Each structure stands twice: as structure tokens, then as C-alpha cells.
Amino acid sequence: MIARIPVFVLCLLILVPIQASATTYVQAAGSTLEFSGKYQGDAFKGRFPGFKTQMSFNPADLSKARLDVVIPLASATTRNPDYDQALLGADFFNSAKFPNARYTASAFKALGAGRYSAAGILELRGVKKPVTLNFSWQPGKSPLLTGTAVVKRLDFNIGIGDWADTAMIADDVLISARVVLNAR
Amino acid sequence: MISNSSTHWGSISRGLHWLTLILILGLATVGLLMTELPNSPFKIQVYALHKSFGLTVLALTLLRLLWRWLAGSPEAISGTRLEQWTAKAVHVLLYILLITLPLSGWLYNSASGFPLKWFNLISLPRLLGGYNPQVKQLAHEWHENGFYMLAVLLSLHAGAALYHHYVKKDDTLKRMTGKMP
Description:
The complex is a heterodimer of chains A (184) and B (181). With 184 residues, chain A is mainly β.
């Protein structure tokens, strides 16, 4: 009887983490990451092809949730070569020096009705600052995350010098993510 | 005299004529230099002004044609039939360029996918559906070639005015400067 106690404890130690652990997902095809902002009062849109998401998520236990998104900057495009040239250049993304941005989050909270909020950190152009991602989670075999975040471009020195004029380019840039996930 | 007669240009036609000239000289100078500027908010502002003044020329030209239609225009003072016909052709081409040059710029701007605001006041729509690299290239060629055509025609136009004034010593130039008795 006594000899069984360590076995029982061992079983608990093994089982508890398994039950509480979140499923780990990787990004699947059909995912998009887009940005939109205002230039001279006119809306512009662009996207980040080739971004990669890894996520651990279980709606029942948000304490174990993790999000890690790597965003290549050199391929970012508004589909307007004039804009893209400036966007990737030294005054904006400076993608030659800072090839990737990264968003990581480990603090999640439920907002109700399948919606959540992640208090994460965005590392962009050598600056790390908090950025909140609000998203909905559609569970299933391939769960779907649909979320938005507002990034203040000047927090990350995107558009420095004379470009900092927010009357020309608005400070707020809206990021929209649609991520299809598959269990790893 | 505000209106035109068969012998005189009135003050409205004269004012529009010289105002257009000043605008064109400014637009041409800035237009030829601005492409060399490094990309910066200053460049964007210079372009915005070029676009706004160009649109002003378009609006003034339409007003001018409307006024010319309402108030009429004086007859030629002198010249052979060929000279009068040539003068007329140059005038017609000048009017066409004063309309198509701003329009090609507007189209170039639209096809480049850029916004357009007249002196930061009035937003103008994109022509022919916005960003389009082929249209962009074509519109740019029209804008450039149109400018060179305008420069040639303006030289002919000004040369003819000076010829009338200094060689033929008639009132053709004087009636546009308002010094005709």
C-alpha cells in the first residue's frame, strides 16, 4: 500500500500538466496579416506576407496561453511601389537593418462570447513596447483567430524626421490578423 | 470694360490670360525641378502645390472658354489668311493643352494610387479606377510630352505677339495688355 503512494503521486505529476496544458498550434494556409493607415487623409492598406504564428491556447486555461508571431518586414507591401519603397526604407521599417518584427504574448484574458485579449510585446525596428491584441477564437479542428491591434507607428519610430508629421501620416495603424491554426 | 467686343479684350479675358501665364511659368519651373527632390514630406508638399495649381489652371481654362463663349472674342487685327489660320490653330491647341495637361497629371496621380486634395481643401476622386501601373506610365508620358508641346506652342504664340508688336507695329499685343486705346 505504502509502496503505491509514490506511484500515485507520480501519476498525478504526469497527469496534471497534461490536463491543464494548452494545445500548441502552428499557422496554416489561408492566414493573412494586414495593416491599414491614413496618408493625407486617404486610407491605405498593406499586408505582411510570410508571417509565422505559433500559439498555445486553451480557452479553459488562459494561464498557459502563448502567442509568438514573427513578421518579415522586407516583403511588406501596399501594392503601390512608390509607397513600398518608402515603407521599407531607412526612415520607416528599415528592413535592411531590422528584417523581422516579433509579437509575443503570454498574458491573456477572456472578454466573453469567444473573445479574448492578449497583452503582448511588439518588437519592431529595435523598439519593444506593449501592444494589445483583441481577438475572437473560433474553436475546431483548425481553429481560427481573428484579431485586431492598434499600433502607434511613432512608438516604434516608423516614419522618423519630417515623416513624423501625423497630419500627413496618421500615428494609428490598424493591424488585422486572420490566422488559421493547425495542431502541431 | 469687363466684357469683350469685336475689337477689344475685356478685363476678365485679359486677367484670365495673364493669370494663366503666371501659373504655367510657375508650374513648369517647379514641375521640371521637383522630380529631382529626394523623397521627403517637403517633396510631397511641393508636389501637392504643383497639383493644386495645375487643377487651378484646368478650372480657369474651363471658365475662360465659357466666358469666351458668352462674351465673344475680338477679330484678328492683321495678317494673311494663312497667318490668321495658323494663329487660330495655335490658340485651339493651346486651349486643348491647358485642359489635357492638368487632366493627364490628375490621371498620373490617380494611377499612382495617390490621394488628391486641391490646396488641402477639396478631395478629388481618382480617375479611371485608381492604381494602375500601365496607365501610370502612359499618363506620365502624356504629361511630359504635353508639356513640351505646350512649350513649343507658347513660344510660337509669344513670338507671334512680339512680331505683331515690334515688326508689324499693330495693336495685337496692346489689346491683351489693356493698353489699346
